[in-house]
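Lab intake sheet, docking and co-folding queue.

SAMPLE TYPE: protein with bound small molecule
LIGAND NAME: fe (ii) ion
LIGAND FORMAT: SMILES
REQUESTED OUTPUT: full 3D complex as structure tokens
PRIORITY: normal
SUBMITTED BY: R.K., bench team

The fields below were copied directly from the construct record.
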Amino acid sequence: MVSRIEEESVDALSSLDQKLHVKNFIWCEKEWPSLSFDEFEDEEDVPVISLHEILESKKGDTYEKLCQLMVTASATWGFFKLVNHGVASEITKNIKLRLHEFFDLPMEQKLKGGRSASLPLGYSATNPDYGENLPWAEIIQLLQSPQQTLGLAKNVLGDQHQPFSDAMSEYMDALDKLGMIIFEMLAHGLGLPDDFFTKHFTEKDSTMIRINRYPPCPLPEKCLGLGSHSDPHTLTILFQDEVGGLQVLQNDNQWIGIRPVPNSFIINIGDTLEAWTNGRLRSVVHRAVVNKEKRRLSIAYFMSPACSTVIESPPQLITHDKLYVPFTWGDFRNQLLIQKRVSGKTALNRYRLNY
Ligand SMILES: O=C(O)CCC(=O)C(=O)O
Ligand SMILES: [Fe+2]
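RESULT FIELD (auto-filled):
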């Protein structure tokens, strides 16, 4: 029997020609989250790493130790939290403000920045490609490209676009710099030349940003903000607000909630970096759950190398069987565009040897 809640209409996520009801967002039963958005471990969930001591000078024992810590966290958890990371809190405060202003606009206006058929980028209220298991989220997806950001901003905000455009480009520039620091530390910790990864990130043409805003949901036990997935890219720098909802799948197949920490970023390894390091660093499945009372904002910055970059594990990391055939990021990216939706890490399996 369909309950009254399920009949409720969902105006916040309905495009103009698409009237959606709560029942349209109900996921198949095996995906229903048993852990709610505010359930966390008593102890620390994933490791917390502070860059405080090394932002000024990256030499010495402290740097060595932190690089090792980062590699260990990435190899065991695939996730860690970064504090004292050097990104000014004004930058994150400002982008939060501007993004909420954007999402608070009438649907009609936001849809002026809507995704077009040929490019799966821009604003979307629900992802129409998904068919079933609709994510309970509004999403803005853009390449790290000033032109694309400007395009979206001008289409939606007209001559009022400047504060939004400035906040976005300031945020992306800051995250890009942070990403380079993390890549250098990972390379160093893995015993590779410090620029092993960063040298492939000079063109910013395929790094992407995805902004998720999850409205309050009357039926959070049967809906999901974002279903279980791994990030196909290389490295994700995720900002989440103070609400909570990110959950990570552990080795024992149990979900664990990632407690929000003010002024922190969550870093996770993507499929491409797992392949690049011959499985040493792990890309781990995660999801976002929603809740009845509070809207939630998260911003995922997906770092990607130039499309021509060949993703091939260096000999230093082939200490056991080679797990993946070499592939270019461009090829993988094209596959992702065709495949539309991935559940778990299936996208990477096409390059897996002996699979
Ligand atoms: O909202 C979150 O915490 C998770 C977002 C995420 O995993 C993604 O955008 O890939
Ligand atoms: Fe993700």
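REVIEWER NOTE: Residues 210, 212, 226, 231, 240, 245-246, 286, 288, 298, 300 surround 2-oxoglutaric acid (ligand 1) (CB under 6 Å).
SIGN-OFF: pending second check by T.M.
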